[in-house]
Amino acid sequence: MAHDIGRTDLGDHSGFTTRAVRAGQQRSQFHETSEYLALTSGYTFATAAENAGTFAGEVEHYNYSRVDNPTTTMLCDRLAALDGAEAAWPVASGMAAIFYTVLALTRSGSRIVSSRELFGSTVGLFTLMEERFGVHVDYVAATDMREWERALSTPAALVFCETPSNPVMRLVDLAGVSALAHQAGALMVVDNTFATPVLQQPLRFGADVITYSTTKLMDGQGRTVGGAILGTESFIIDQVKPWTRCTGPTMSPFTAWTVLKGLETLPLRVQAQSNSARQIAQALEQHPNVEQVLHPDLPSHPQYDLAQQQMEGGGQMLSIVVSGGTQGAHAFLDRLSLIDISNNLGDTKSLAVHCATTTHHSLTPEEREVAGIPDGLVRLSIGLEDVHDLLDDITQALA
Asked: Which residues, 6 or more positions from 95, have their beta carbon under 8 angstroms from its beta carbon?
């Protein structure tokens, strides 16, 4: 902690929304109400000995913002408080969070067991890790515990999943798979971007590491790109930080400050957007031009019971399969007038995208079929607009 920066103390106040607003806050000597924004690359020292002591780890003082910064420290402390983690570390993007987690836990010859239903760039990263670094990846169906059991009957370095998955909303049994991972000597890593700690806290179910794209709901208004890694203090300090310190995937203080302000309203936004998504999903199940609706809060979801056990709501994301394949999906998107076409998600503005030709275009048709992504699938990120306006726009576009 730098000189003249003091932490606020929550005392016995530990409610989730209180932590979202106040956890980790530091104040400078000016006692500002908003979080301290330290737009600086470096820091000064009273003496050369103090400077040397900082680098030796003997003096608690910030030394360079590639390594640490008061604003990013506040973000780390708040993220950790929301998920019940010992520590967190910010990086430049959600993909950087996944990459540095994998880098920290594997070496040439290591084995990863992963759910097959993943974001396209995550699949691309794993492919590069196999080709360039000799890390082996075994994929299993996210929903099939027998496949998880077979894959984890032999040792592994880490187990990876995203739940709900992007874009088909398949769930992983966090408690069951975490137990299998630990029996195989692996750490359980969960991309919790879709749910956020508002709706799902993977550490409570046995997971070891959480990754986030803070670009999404945590920022919440499409302003910044960032990511975060959460886990034990020893994992973050001893395994993640040495890599990030030397390679520099640094989150800027301004991005950290923006995400901090986003976290203040995260519980309110996520609950409201999740409620709207559920209403829209229920309405679209009856539409003649929609072949399937995918949302964890629907009783028709094949893992509805699991969603009720490990989530506090289905989330703001839903996917629909539009009649007519790619042509039908593109026609639907082109007719939207309120909802924007965008491959981003988690914004206060509702967004829609055709995954087969954008976010998952790098997958072969066979790989998309195995991942459950038909040509007509459209992913919807529901924002904060009036739910009736959103339904009117979707309905007219489907006509």
From this structure: 121, 122, 125, 213, 227
User: In this structure, is residue 1 part of a structural domain?
Assistant: no
* pTM of structure: 0.95
**242 and 272 co-located in one domain:** no
The strand pairing partners of 64, in sequence order, are: 42
- Looking only at the bridges linking them, the beta strands covering 351-354 and 340-341 are parallel
Last residue of a domain, one of 238, 262, 286: 262
Domain limit, last residue, from 262, 278, 300: 262
* Side-chain half-sphere exposure of 319, counting CA atoms within 13 A: 23
State whether 229 and 96 are in the same domain: yes
Shared domain check, 180 and 215: yes
Q: Do residues 208 and 235 both lie within one domain?
A: yes
> 23-71: per-residue pLDDT in tens?
999 998 899 999 999 999 999 999 999 999 999 999 999 999 999 999 9
Range of the domain at 350: 266-398
At residue 6, does pLDDT exceed 80?
no
Are residue 249 and residue 327 in the same domain, yes or no?
A: no
C-alpha dist (Å) from residue 28 to 22, 37, 46, 66, 227: 15, 10, 17, 21, 26
d(CA 272, CA 263): 15
Question: In this predicted model, what pLDDT tens digit does every residue of 77-107 receive, in sequence order?
Answer: 999 999 999 999 999 999 999 999 999 999 9
Instruction: Work out how many domains the chain is built from and give that number.
Output: 2
Question: Are residues 255 and 225 in contact, defined by beta-carbon separation less than 8 angstroms?
Answer: yes
Alpha helix (H) residue ranges in 88-119: 94-105
Greatest CA span in the chain, whole angstroms? 74
